[in-house]
Structures are given as C-alpha cells and as structure tokens.
Amino acid sequence: MECQKTTMKSQQEIVEDFEIFEDWMEKYQYIIDLGKDLDKLNHAEKTDDNKLQGCQSQVWIVHKLVNNKVQFKAESDAAIVAGLVALVLSVYSDKTPAEILATEPVFIAEIGLDKYLSPTRSNGLSSLLTRIRVIAKDYC
Q1: H or E segment to which residue 27 belongs
Q2: Is residue 55 annotated as a catalytic residue, yes or no?
Q3: Domains contained in the chain, number
Q4: What number of CA atoms fall less than 13 Å from residue 72's CA on the CB side?
Q5: Are the beta carbons of 34 and 87 closer than 8 angstroms?
Q6: With helix as H, strand as E and coil as C, how does 73-108 read?
C-alpha cells in the first residue's frame, strides 16, 4: 500500500516536527508560522461555495484534480486557523481521492492537538476534515 505509506509518512513528519518543541506556546507559534506559508487565494476563489461552513473563522478551500491527485489551496483570516489548515493540507493535498478517504488524521492525537484546541477550533478542524473527505468522494 504505497499510498498509505505516503500519507503516514507525512503525518510522521508532523509528529517529529512537534517533538522538538518544549511547550504548547512554542507549538502554537510553529502552527501560526506554518499558516504564513499558505498561498493566498485570489478574490475570485473566495466564494460562498468555497467557504468552509462550521468554522468560526473565515476559511476558504479550493481544489482541483491533477493527474488523479487532489490539489488543495486554502486561506483563513485567523493566524492559528491558517496554521491548522496548513498542517491538514500537508497530509491530504496532492494525494489520490482513494488515499484521502483511506487516511485518518492520526497526527492530531499523536501531537496532542486534540487536547489543546478550544471546542470551536476543534469543530472547525472537524469541518475541514469532513470537507476534504467530501471533495475526495466527489472525485471518485
């Protein structure tokens, strides 16, 4: 299952990256820094159809299928949310629809993120993961 190894490798790299930080303030700063590296969407991409529902912050996610791999781009108006989006996209972007659907986001629990997010951020993260899966299903 080469596909599975690819997403698992992406998740393992996230876990390893987070192991170097001493506390959650450093981890939050790292997440914020990751969000700064997201490509900005153009105005035409920031439509209601592309807007993520169920997230307190504004998040837009766009996608396209290239060589049977789903490529995602996203932007958020909140720094920490942009970083969370960047983490998720590092696992799921540029993967086949089947690979996306077969991949559980185990890195969230492995880095302890599930314990340190507010309920509203957790709901937004869940909405993002659900949206990615719906998009992948639509391409199957």
Answers
A1: helix 24-36
A2: yes
A3: 1
A4: 29
A5: yes
A6: EEEECCHHHHHHHHHHHHHHCCECHHHHHHCCCCHH
Q: Model-level pTM?
A: 0.92
CATH of the domain at 86: 3.90.1010.10
pLDDT score at 5: 54
What's the one-letter identity of residue 19? E
Encoding tokens for residue 18? 């987070």
Q: Which residues fall within 8 angstroms of residue 10, CB to CB, at 6 or more apart?
A: 90, 91
**Domain interval for residue 79:** 2-139
The residue from 14, 34, 52, 55 that is catalytic is 55
Is the pLDDT score of 65 beyond 80? yes
State pLDDT tens for residues 68-124: 999 999 999 999 999 999 999 999 999 999 999 999 999 999 999 999 998 999 999
